Amino acid sequence: AQSVTQLGSHVSVSEGALVLLRCNYSSSVPPYLFWYVQYPNQGLQLLLKYTSAATLVKGINGFEAEFKKSETSFHLTKPSAHMSDAAEYFCAVSDSGTYKYIFGTGTRLKVLA
Amino acid sequence: SQTIHQWPATLVQPVGSPLSLECTVEGTSNPNLYWYRQAAGRGLQLLFYSVGIGQISSEVPQNLSASRPQDRQFILSSKKLLLSDSGFYLCAWSAGHYEQYFGPGTRLTVT
After folding, report:
1. Which of A74, B31, B63, B86 could serve as a FRET partner for A56 with CA atoms 20 to 30 Å apart?
2. Residue A54 CA to chain centroid, in angstroms?
């Protein structure tokens, strides 16, 4: 069965510092991978997606992620954190055998002034 | 463009009362539809998904049910709410295996 692991349930960075949120997946076939952001009391918003095209994927708000098959990773990065980036981030993979999506447990990002 | 609506936005219900949450999608046809629940400080729990009218797959039987009476309408119901049903309920849609799009959510508090 496919699974997604997000390392670090809470990550704190200083404003202007690099943001790195980790996601590892397990899949027997090339997956579709996604990063979502959730602000308090709101639904999830798609940040970016990997669908077997370019391995470096650029998303909204200056975020990007790199698909590394050898490491089964899809880490999310942003060169310079902004206060408005404080939110919860979810990594997800679409299940190739069904129409379900497997979500990680989420990483709450805190940005320090 | 596609939009997804959920209502109500917030709901406070006593234990043992019924529940009906509605989700509708506009601007697309034959979407896959999903109901998720987030308990406080927890991740996403898939409750139900549907790939077509009348086709419902249940991930969490419990006391909840889902129906899809129309192509772009997805309803989450319960006959008798439990305290443990409190949470943030999210509806989502997708086209095939591609990205999901989420609604704004319903905050349910069972008292």
Report:
1. B31
2. 16
Tokens of B49: 């998904």
| A100 contacts on B by Cβ (under 8 Å) | 46, 49, 59
Inter-chain touch B97–A96, beta carbons under 8 Å: yes
Query: Could you say which of B32, B43, B88 has the minimum Cβ distance to residue A103?
Result: B43
Residues forming beta bridges with residue A103, ordered by sequence position:
A92
One digit per residue, the tens of pLDDT, for chain B of length 111 reads 889 999 999 999 999 999 999 999 999 999 999 999 998 777 899 999 999 998 999 988 688 999 999 999 999 999 999 999 999 999 999 998 789 999 999 999 999
Q: Is the peptide bond before B18 cis (omega within 30 degrees of 0)?
A: no
Q: How far apart are CA B101 and CA B104, in angstroms?
A: 10
Q: What are phi and psi of A27, to 5 degrees?
A: -155, 140
Total residue length of chain A = 113
For the record, the structure tokens of B57 come out as 């797959």
A101 chain-B contacts, CB cut-off 8 A: 34, 46, 94, 100
pLDDT in tens for each of the 113 residues of chain A? Answer: 788 999 999 999 999 999 999 999 987 676 789 999 999 989 999 999 998 778 899 999 999 999 998 999 999 999 999 999 999 999 999 887 788 999 999 999 999 99
d(CA A100, CA B55): 14
